[in-house]
């Protein structure tokens, strides 16, 4: 049996909602979302206890816009490395569906040098050596579920 190819409709989210209405303030409950982030364990900046994390989280959730160009707590569960902090490079929603995606890699040395000033502005005293703990992560997920963990 041959499957018939279905054309992709432009301006339609994976859930079927027109993207024009979303961009104009339409209510949108869930969709496929993609993020590219620079991710580091909170321990990299000296957050080692739950109380320190809660204090940091309270501060940052008031200051961030949760979009590209801002620092935010990672949207995934904690793993063996504890809570993670993201610098959001790309935040796209809605994006066409097609399945979950996860990629993570170390930064190249020239990328460490390029992004170091951004980290130093938010975390004074942040060093090039600490940039070794920052990974480039790219992932896509259906945002009615938890974001996949990758580091």
Search tags:
151 residues; 3 helices; 5 strands; globular
Contiguous runs where pLDDT drops below 50 for at least 5 residues? 1-27
Strand-residue fraction?
15-25%
Characterize the largest beta sheet: strand count, sense, and whether it forms a barrel.
Answer: 5 strands, antiparallel
Question: What would you call the quaternary organization?
Answer: single chain
Overall, the morphology is globular
Task: Please tally the helical runs, counting DSSP H or I stretches of 4 or more residues.
Answer: 3
Short note summarizing the structure:
The chain is α+β, with helices and mostly antiparallel strands and 151 residues long. Helix content is 22%, strand content 24%. The protein contains 3 helices and 5 strands.
If you had to describe this structure to a student in words, what would you say it looks like?
This protein has helices spanning 19-23, 50-63, 109-122; strands at 32-41, 71-73, 84-92, 101-106, 135-142. The chain is globular and about 40 Å long. It has one domain (33-142). 22% of the residues lie in helices and 24% in strands. With 151 residues, the protein is an alpha+beta fold. A 5-stranded antiparallel β-sheet has the order 2-3-1-5-4.
